Amino acid sequence: MKNVANRARAYILLAVCVLLGVMPGAAPAMADGSSSSYNYSYWGEPVASPAAYQATELWTGDSLGTGPLKDPSDMHVTPDGDIYVLDTGNNRILILDSQFKLERIIDSFKQDGAVQTFQSPLGLFVTENKDLYIADTGNRRVVQLDSGDNVVKVVDSPQSEQLPENFTFQPVRLVVDKAQRLYVMATGVYDGFMEFNSGGDFTSFIGANKVTIDPVEYFWKRISTQAQRSQMVMYTPTEFSNLDINEEGFIYATNGQRSNNVKKLNAQGSDILRRLGYWEPEGDIYATVTTGYTRLADIDIGDSEMYSILDANHGRVFTYNGDGYLLYVFGGMGNQLGYFNTPAALERVGDDFIVLDKALGEITVFRSTEYGRTLNQAVRSYYNGDEEQALQLFRQTINMNANLDFAYSGIGKAILRQGDYAEAMKYFKQSMDKTNYSKAYLLYRKQVLRAHFTEIVAAVFLLVIAVFAWIKFRKMKVRKKVVPREQRAG
Amino acid sequence: MNKELVKYPFELMAHPFNGFWDLKYDRSRKTNLVISFIILGLMVLTNVLSTQYSGFLVSMYNPNYMNSLLEVLYVLIPVIFWTVANWSITTLMDGEGKFVEIFTSTCFAMLPLVIINLPWIWLSNYISLQEASFYYFSGSLATIWFIFLLFVGNMTVQQFTPGKTIVTILLTVAAMAFMAFLCLLFFSLVQQIINFSMTIYQEIVLRS
After folding, report:
1. B86 has which bridge partners?
2. For chain A, first and last CA: distance in Å?
3. pTM here?
4. What is the domain range of residue B57?
5. Domain boundaries defined on chain A
6. Contact status of A437 with chain B (Cβ, < 8 Å)
7. Do B206 and A437 count as a contact with CB atoms less than 8 A apart?
8. What residues of chain B lie within 8 A of the CB of A434, using their CB?
9. Which chain B positions have a beta carbon within 8 Å of A441's beta carbon?
10. Structural domain A36-368, CATH architecture
11. Can you give the pLDDT at residue A28?
């Protein structure tokens, strides 16, 4: 009896193991978490991937020598590596060099002889010539300071026919383009970003989100009375949650939706983000009610059209290349190094990432692993058109991570350029890249047909002759059969 | 004789009104059944082969989850459901079709699906993405032909008017959905009963 029970227990244990092992929809987080990461395959399954980035340092207000940070909400890194941290709760801006050594603190500025301070500022931006723009949210203004902390201009209470009568200007995040145009994300504005010209005058809105309607809610709204309807929530487009600008002047914006939450806006405000990847660039493609949905808090644009988004709900950073293929994922929620409590801002310092945690007032530094560096370099070489080097680097990448489906496509493209069509087809098949596979296949087919032209023509010729001969033969046979019957009749 | 037997389903495909009339009134039930099972077998074969051997450009199957036995069921279960549901409905609606006749006419109607899709499995390995539209076109052609044959077959076998046939076909689809629901209910209940008795067994065994 005991024996049977033991065996039964073993079977159940086995069944449980098998079930857990093959569960495809299970949360993508890995069991050990620390060393490995994941990526999404063509089939939408989370597959194991080596870590591309690892947390190496943690900076708090104390280790920076500035006293504790209080609800810091934004960061900006200049091309030469200076890090600007906006310490919202303490109403100050910390300027650090790339080694996190404190350079100076800005907590006030002089305007017309009077000293002015900030009141819970939420966003900042630094231009190439180190002009500092601060979204001074509590004071309802945007302040521009030059590199010597002198006020250049203050933008407040914008006037326009497009704005409502009782409009209060509460800037939250902002970017500035090369023509000194200012794009401000403001609370309570559903028409997109507010664009100001270099003189600080409001010109227009840009890039509004579309209204999304829940069918169930729509149904209830249809059958309710006017009085009930006025009590309900209005359909308004979702607000943006953050924005960044790249060197070419395109604004990348995120919003709080579950999907379609990343946009690349051109000057007209239309979305031109390339979505050629296996899955939409929107963070985790699977979400469950228990783990919660992706909610993007920040976006950062790197070189070669790479961009990263920060999911505030799961604390993960997703990086995509310009075509929208997911490169790597890192981060998470937790208490250890490399995990966050309330991630708020994401920036790149060279090839490294820094993530700002709002509630803890900490900055985590992530440095690339060899895998991450190789992949970054591969994407860069490919973007710059150096296919030879991209081929080498992508080969190294898949040696480290055979699950990275899109890397095979990069190899395939380089091989296709070299003229080895059959080999290129193999790689495109591996990356499930049907368009390029078809291109390679057409070239391959032409090559084969051309090489065996004589044989093929000869075969067709012989076949035609054979068919004719067969028909002739059949006719003769029929005639022979017919003849005796006629004789019989006669 | 043998040659004519091979020709017969193809003639039915081209001239369905005469063909299904012959199937109901002139042909022996036994030959009909034999041909039906051959066509059904070929249909199963087509389905299984297409999951495995379709060209990369047109294949949509995740090879990790490909299961031939399930592919067999994906053909057999709809046919069984259709036949049972159609028989149940038409019996109530004064149809003249016997169960066997419904089954054979359904199987005969599937012939276009086989003779168009089976060669395409092989051919689809030699097409580009632009030429894939031919693949999809012939696929839809086969489906439309199949539906037309199913319609004519049902009409002839039951001796219905076209309008009544459409109504019965719609009712049949509804009945199939209902059957699927009942089957799911049945199996989930059986599963729970098995689970329950298993738990009791374990409880007893582990306590002794």
Report:
1. none
2. 94
3. 0.81
4. 2-207
5. 36-368, 389-451
6. yes
7. no
8. 56-57, 129
9. 57, 128
10. 6 Propeller (2.120)
11. 42
Instruction: Give the pLDDT mean for A282-305.
Output: 86
Cβ pair B128:A445 closer than 8 A: yes
What's the mean pLDDT in A59-87?
A: 93
Give A-chain residues touching B130 at CB under 8 angstroms: 438
B128 vs A1, A43, A442: nearest CB: A442
* Predicted-complex ipTM score: 0.83
Query: What is the pLDDT, as a whole number, of residue A27?
Result: 41
Q: How many domains does chain B fold into?
A: 1
Q: Using N-to-C axis directions, what is the helix angle for B132-158 and B111-123, rounded to 10°?
A: 170
* A195 pLDDT higher than 70: yes
Distance CA A229, CA A213 (A): 15
pLDDT tens digits along A297-314? 999 999 999 999 999 999
Question: Which tokens hold the place of A481?
Answer: 């059969």
d(CA B66, CA B51): 7
Q: What is the torsional sign of CA A32, A33, A37, A38?
A: positive
Out of A4, A437, A445, closest to residue B57 by CB: A437
Residue B37: predicted pLDDT = 96
Residue % of chain B over a pLDDT of 70: 100
Nearest chain A CA: its distance from B179 CA (Å): 29
Answer yes or no: is pLDDT of A14 > 60: no
For residue A299, the Cα-to-chain-centroid distance in whole angstroms is 8
Q: How confident is the model at residue A211 (pLDDT cuts 50, 70, 90)?
A: confident
The 3-class SS string of chain A reads CHHHHHHHHHHHHHHHHHHHHHCCCCCCCCCCCCCEEEEECCCCCEEEEECCEEEEEEEEHHHHCCCCCCCCCEEEECCCCCEEEEEHHHCEEEEECCCCCEEEEECEEEECCEEEECCCCCEEEECCCCCEEEEEHHHCEEEEECCCCCEEEEEECCCCCCCCCCCCCCEEEEEECCCCCEEEEECCCCCCEEEECCCCCEEEEECCCCCCCCHHHHHHHHHCCHHHHHHCCCCCCCCEEEEEECCCCCEEEEECCCCCCEEEECCCCCECCCCCCCCCCCCCCCCCCCCCCCCEEEEEECCCCCEEEEECCCCEEEEECCCCCEEEEEECECCCCCCECCEEEEEEECCEEEEEECCCCEEEEEEECHHHHHHHHHHHHHHCCCHHHHHHHHHHHHHHCCCCHHHHHHHHHHHHHHCCHHHHHHHHHHCCCHHHHHHHHHHHHHHHHHHCHHHHHHHHHHHHHHHHHHHHHHHHHHHHHHHHHHHHHC
State chain B's mean pLDDT as an integer: 94
Q: State pLDDT tens for residues B147-188.
A: 999 999 999 999 999 999 999 999 999 999 999 999 999 999
